[in-house]
Amino acid sequence: MKTVKVVAAVIKVKKENGKWMIFATQRGYGEFKDGWEFPGGKIEAGETPQEALKREIREELDTEIKVGQLITTVEYDYPTFHLSMDCFWAEVVSGNLILREHEAAKWLAMEELDSVDWLPADVMVVEKVRDRL
């Protein structure tokens, strides 16, 4: 089975009330169209995961991010490929998270994380996010 190596950003912001908000995006194309995910994409040859994540967020959301600590690496078997996804904490440095490839996006409070239909691999990330914030 083919392995696809990707990165994902768990973009977070702490509100004035002390609550964390997490940015989620809805796929606008492909086999998993309409599923919710953490934004990111494929790692290109010669890139570190952090470099790939910065590039992908710049391309997909017209935003510069600061990449933080690795949260988890998800290994998940979809029907036609194996996904290996490095997930990092991230914060917006500049930009307004403009959707260039996604159908929709939401800022979700911790208690709202289950309000969207996450793609299967991203469900595992949601659990780690819950444990760590």
Please provide a brief summary of the model.
This protein has 133 residues and is of the alpha+beta class.
What are the defining features of this structure?
133 residues, globular, alpha+beta, seven-stranded mixed β-sheet, 7 strands, 20% helix
Could you characterize the architecture of this molecule?
This protein is an alpha+beta fold and 133 residues long. The chain is 20% helix and 47% strand. The chain has 2 helices and 7 strands. It has helices at residues 49-61, 120-132, and strands at residues 3-14, 20-27, 36-37, 40-42, 63-77, 82-95, 102-109. The radius of gyration is 14 Å and the shape is globular. It starts with a strand and ends with a helix.
Layout of helices and strands:
Blueprint: E1 3-14, E2 20-27, E3 36-37, E4 40-42, H1 49-61, E5 63-77, E6 82-95, E7 102-109, H2 120-132
Parallel strand pairs: 1-6
Antiparallel strand pairs: 1-2, 1-4, 2-3, 2-7, 5-6
Total helices: the number is 2
Total strand count, please? 7
- SSE order: EEEEHEEEH
User: What structural category do the secondary elements indicate?
Assistant: alpha+beta
Cα distance spanning the termini: 35 Å
The helix content, as a percent range, equals 10-25%
Strand content: over 45%
Pick out the low-confidence regions: none
The whole-number mean of residue pLDDT values reads 95
Largest sheet: 7 strands, mixed
What global shape is seen? Answer: globular
Computed CA radius of gyration, to the nearest angstrom:
14 Å
